[in-house]
Write a structure and sequence with these properties.
By secondary structure, the protein is of the alpha/beta class. The protein folds into four domains: 66 residues, no CATH class; 206 residues, no CATH class; 126 residues, no CATH class; 100 residues, no CATH class. Helix content is 35%, strand content 12%. The protein has a twelve-stranded parallel sheet. Strand 8, helix 13 and strand 9 form a beta-alpha-beta unit. Helix 2 packs antiparallel against helix 3 and helix 11 runs parallel beside helix 12. The protein is globular. This is F-box domain-containing protein.
Length: 559
């Protein structure tokens, strides 16, 4: 066939063009580079160790590799640099004083870079004496390398003035010595404030904050922010911090680890942790702030700083104004907040839509009421849910034990207000907070205790007496697990009956419900090793829920 003949002698053969990045559409390159934007670890993580010591499963491993990859791409060509460099500065983590100073230098020298950052985290405690000393030692060497840009604009002028004042005043400040209240003590806070001022498009900010009184709070930083907001009072849209919608206050995780391991050289108070109420000026300075996350808070959410947690009235007998009036979403990680504290939190966040609290453990709770009453305490969480949570859409709170605090939950230690919360759509709640005790499971239909407009429900199979098992359970022998399983037969029967009745009623009673999850904290209540898997008991329950158009699943802590 003609198609099989070789080309005539001397004929030119057409070749496919060589593949080249220069020929690829910029949209395709940008889409590929997006995968290299680093995702920062969750709040509460300690800062990373040396780059080569990080293991693949460590939180900072992917973050550091993504940043190095983007940095390498920036050096390939001008075209790739233009595409990759904005992504390199999209997520910024400051791990030590050196990185803070160098990042400020970059922003001062190249202010056009400042519009690229959307997330920034600071993983040093700015009032720590060791951090202050590091700034003192580093600035004389690094400050001469600053080349601030000149041009119009309040922020560029402010950066130039700070660098100039440091250059002139640094020798005198250093000579005066380093003290917690000395003239140099507030410099780390001033540098952090200027960094945030220059990042005009930043949306999420993580600040590491003190958790003991040995390190002062960020009063200077909060005062500076309030002063900046006042200067722009007549032109609020020209003020910095216009795009910050999420603030993460991270209680110093390294000091936390030392305290929990009894290796802390500081004097550890009975109750310790981050103190979010002291950052009210910071909240007010961010006009778009709607989300607050806190790790390792001290549990106190009242506005009366110098009074016991249960004191909520001002000197004239009136309620003080809320210090989180615009916050919509609050997430508490590793918290010691007890039910009465969450009462104060709801008072101080009247527009709250999401409340999440993961407990640190109840050993640090500050006081016991020692009240045998079955009535709710005036500052019970149940009362706050009924009176001050009209906008709440998502609720997830739990405790290991409420011994001595039952009346601060609600009557008989139950959250009776849930059934009347029409705005609530997602709920994660312990069975003990609904019924009080296992014997009450058969007394009231589950649907009677739940909000009418729920979309998703997570029920945690947890009862206060089980707290004694948490420490023992990891050391149980097979025989002990079998004995516990056998002893829980009656409870399983009553719990499954309640779930089955709930599944039959769910479509008529909770017409919006789409998903139900049962979370089992004590796996051996439902699991018999090598004989009975977790899902075995719930096959009929799952089928009944499916017949009503509701997904049902059961999960357990690691077996």
């Amino acid at each position: 066939m003609d198609s099989e003949r070789p080309p005539p002698a001397g004929a030119r053969q057409l070749r496919a063009p060589a593949l080249s990045l220069d020929l690829m559409p910029p949209e395709l390159i940008a889409l590929t580079l997006d995968f290299l934007i680093p995702r920062p670890p969750e709040i509460g993580e300690t800062r990373p160790v040396a780059y080569h010591q990080l293991m693949a499963d460590e939180p900072w491993f992917d973050f550091t590799r993504c940043r190095r990859g983007l940095h390498s791409i920036c050096r390939v060509s001008r075209r790739l640099d233009a595409l990759a460099r904005p992504l390199l500065y999209r997520v910024v983590a400051l791990w030590d004083p050196t990185s803070m100073i160098l990042f400020l230098r970059t922003l001062c020298d190249k202010p056009d870079y400042s519009v690229w950052t959307r997330y920034i985290s600071c993983h040093v405690t700015l009032t720590s004496l060791s951090v202050i000393r590091d700034f003192r030692d580093l600035l004389p060497d690094l400050l001469p390398s600053f080349r601030p840009a000149f041009g119009p604009g309040v922020l560029i002028t402010a950066a130039s003035h700070l660098v100039e004042s440091l250059a002139h005043g640094l020798p005198l400040i250093i000579a005066s010595g380093i003290h917690g209240t000395g003239p140099f003590a507030s410099l780390p806070q001033a540098i952090m404030r200027l960094i945030l001022m220059l990042l005009t498009k930043v949306e999420t900010v993580l600040l590491q904050v003190p958790i003991t009184d040995d390190e002062p709070e960020y009063d200077v930083l909060c005062g500076d922010f309030a002063g900046i907001a006042n200067k722009f009072h007549e032109d609020p849209y020209g003020s910095p911090f216009q795009n910050i919608h999420t603030l993460l206050l991270q209680g110093d995780p390294e000091l936390l680890a030392q305290i929990e391991e009894d290796e802390c050289e500081c004097e550890v108070p009975e109750v310790w942790g981050a103190q979010p109420r002291r950052y009210a000026a910071l909240f007010a300075s961010f006009p778009k702030l709607t989300t607050l996350e806190v790790s390792s808070d001290d549990g106190v959410w009242s506005t009366a700083l110098d009074e016991p947690p249960h004191t909520i009235f001002a000197a004239d007998g009136s309620l003080p104004p809320p210090f989180m009036p615009n916050i919509r979403h609050i997430y508490l990680h590793n918290s010691v907040a007890y039910p009465g504290d969450l009462h104060h939190l709801l008072l101080n966040a009247p527009r709250l839509e999401t409340l999440y609290m993961a407990p640190r453990g109840d050993a640090s709770l500050h006081e016991e009421l020692d009240d045998n009453s079955t009535n709710a305490h005036p500052e019970a969480l149940d009362i706050a849910l009924a009176d001050h949570a009209k906008h709440l859409r998502n609720l997830d709170v739990s405790w290991e034990d409420i011994k001595g605090f039952a009346t601060l939950v609600g009557p008989d230690g139950r959250l009776t207000a849930l059934a009347g919360m029409e705005s609530l759509q997602t709920l994660c709640v312990q069975m003990a907070l609904l019924y009080g005790n296992p014997a009450a499971v058969l007394e009231t239909p589950l649907a009677d205790l739940l909000p009418p407009n729920l979309v998703e429900l997570a029920l945690e199979d947890w009862w206060w007496p089980n707290v004694v098992l948490l420490d023992e359970m990891p050391d149980w022998t097979s025989e002990q697990k079998v004995r516990h399983y056998q002893a829980q037969h009656g409870y399983r029967v009553s719990a499954l009956r309640t779930l089955m009745e709930f599944a039959r009623d769910v479509r008529a009673r909770l017409c919006h419900l789409k998903k139900v999850v049962l979370l089992c904290r004590i796996p051996w209540t439902w699991v018999l090793e090598s004989a009975v898997p977790l899902e075995f008991h719930f096959e009929n329950v799952k089928a009944m829920f499916l017949s009503q158009g509701v997904q049902f699943s059961v999960k357990s802590d690691e077996v």
